[in-house]
Amino acid sequence: MARFLMIVWGLSYAIHLSAQEDLLSLLQEQVTTEYTSAIFKTSRIINGHSIENTPRGIVDIKISHRFGFINNGVYDFFGLDGATIRIGGDFGITDRISVGIGRSSLEKMYDTYGKIRLLKQSSGKRKIPIGVSYIGSVSINTLKFEDPEASNLFQSRLFYSHQLLIARKFNEDFSVQIMPTVVHRNLVQTHSEKHDVLAFGIGGRQKLSKRMSLNLEYYYVLPDQLAERYKNSLSLGFDIETGGHVFQLHFTNSTSMVYKGFITETVGDWLDGGIHFGFNLSRVFTYSRK
Fold first, then answer.
1. Domains of the chain: residue spans and CATH
2. Lowest model confidence (mean pLDDT) among 87-91, 160-164, 202-206, 227-231
3. What is the 3-state secondary structure (H, E, C) of the chain?
4. Which single residue of 1, 122, 167, 282 could bond 51 by disulfide (Cβ 3.0 to 4.6 Å)?
């Protein structure tokens, strides 16, 4: 009987300690703030930026490549004979601020950007349901002038974009981002086109395994701003993480890899085979350990 009572007392004491630990754990969660990480795997969804920043002291070298349109057929080996490429670097200034620069073969375009994190999704003591970042970019077309005698040559080649990145990670596998965007073009091709173009983007990430995810990105341009031949940008792809690299393999109807291009100058039609196969390759290096 005494042994039985000792066993009962021991179990009761263990249950009591477990309950105390659970209560302490709950209290600890309430007095600390847990910040959400890895909403997306890298700083790009496909063509456009994700809410992720390049960390402080890190440079992220990105090589982006788009083959030709698939509907070019066998003669062009379904687009593999053609190529558009962008090479750039993203630099982490602080954990909230990153900058970048790149150069594209299309229109010999140079672009630069700055990104700042305004809000970070968190739970616990400080609950913030979404993350918010702002990104501003400038790009310049450096093709040779068709008419060297024209005036205002430099200003006519500049393009600007402003974008809010509003993202939420719903669980460990699923994230969504919305992207209200303004693109300003100093020069447009026709009088019917707008210099300031308003667009609304949406992107998503669904993890398929520990190192692979499915990504989707779509930009809707509000009506009566572009010429009729231009389409909305739609892209679908996969992220594959391999150690220090992230491979992004995708299909997109956009040729350009800068905001001015893929938002306002997409001509590919998914229903007609106007699709590029392409990839982004990301490799990070540490340039400062401070």
1. 34-286 (2.40.160.40)
2. 227-231
3. CHHHHHHHHHHHHHHHHHHHHHHHHHHHHHHCEEECCCCCCCCECCCCECCCCCCCCEEEEEEEEEEEEHHHCHHHHHHCCCEEEEEEEEEECCCCEEEEEEEECHHHEEEEEEEEEEECCEEECCCECCEEEEEEEEEEECCCCCCCCCCCCCHHHEEEEEEEEEEEECCCCEEEEEEEEEEEECCCCCCCCCCEEEEEEEEEEEEEECCEEEEEEEEEECCCCCCCCCCCEEEEEEEEEECCEEEEEEEECCCCCCHHHHHHCCCCCHHHCCCEEEEEEEEEEECCCC
4. 167
